[in-house]
Amino acid sequence: MERTSSKVLASKGDAVSRALASLSSHPDQRVQAIRTLESLAENAQVRSSIIAFGGAKMLVGLLVRPNDQVLPFEKIRIANTLASLAASPPCRAVIINADSIPQLIRLLGIPEAQAAAITALLALAPQKGSRGLMATGALEVIAHSFKQADNFEEQTRLCQLLASILEGESVQERMPRVLAVVESPETVTGVIGLLSSSAEGILQAAAAVALICCDNNLRVHLMEAGALTALKKLLTHDDPAVVEQALEAIAAVVTLDRGDGQGGQSGLCATLDMEEMLSGEVALVVRQLQGATEEIRCAASHVIFRLAARGDIEIPLRAAEPLPALVSLIRVGKARTRAWAASALRLLSTTSEARETVTQSVPMEVEGREKLLAKIRTLCF
């Protein structure tokens, strides 16, 4: 078996060598070679051979050539090949160093090649590719697309690329890219517009909104641009994944970082009346504490915690009576859900009346009731 496997790999290595050699041959041979490499790159064991033989640089070299010399359908296959190669982490840096990102961004301008180019760029992003995406004009392409009306399918793909650009290891590392995005009014407006599109568009846009929320001023900017208004409308969406992502985005938008200014709030945040903006939807969020999936319940707990931590929407929050549902989640939720529920409960259980409500929310017939109440008292009172 081992000998057979070695023979197969050797055979595939020969196929890689022949295909790469044919890339500089007659166009018909080149087309066949590109197809062969696209197929071979799907094999994890063969990818390293393609890279070792200089395949990344050769493939990128074809992307550089004009469309009348290397046709768009060939470039699509090349982008697919680069995406497959990038699935192996050691290959990503080699592909990026071959100057692939600028060429893939140029490929975004060819409508039929856009999906393949985005797939390749997303595959490269984990290897610090997001910085390269920003430096080589990806944001300009995204902003241009968002200027076009009723172009939701393309904008959804590009919003996925935008989210990749916004991701990073820390807020400090991400902040320059986030600020560049926010400075593009077309991009911000376009992302918020996608919150009223297809389920996939909503998921991508909500993820981007959450990633932009790096500080209080950026959150206010998004609220003023209509992000919170659009997100609130998604709380009754039919798709559970949309509801979950909308809740997570709302949690990011309503977060209030302390210490940004006098009195614990930035001056800009102090101008917003959160109770007026969200009070009508607090009951909907509380209802989602008993939502259809664990993910929805976890995200709703997160929102309740963020609202409780703000301190400026306490009346509608208490009126929605979240305590019984939070107690239930501490009892039956998974670890992350329990953590958000307990954190929210701690902030909302500051009065004797609230603590009595919490105690009464644990049914008498529940097994281990006293143990559970002791745990809640330790964590929350």
From TrEMBL:
This is Vacuolar protein 8. Its main location: membrane. The keyword Membrane applies. Keywords: Lipoprotein, Membrane, Repeat, Vacuole. InterPro entries: ARM-like (IPR011989), ARM-type_fold (IPR016024), Armadillo (IPR000225), Vac8 (IPR045156). It is a lipid-anchor. One of its GO terms (cellular component) is vacuolar membrane. Gene3D superfamilies: Leucine-rich Repeat Variant. It comes from Cladocopium goreaui. PANTHER family: VACUOLAR PROTEIN 8. GO terms for molecular function: protein-membrane adaptor activity. SUPFAM superfamilies: ARM repeat. GO terms for biological process: nucleus-vacuole junction assembly. It is found in: Vacuole membrane. Belongs to the beta-catenin family.
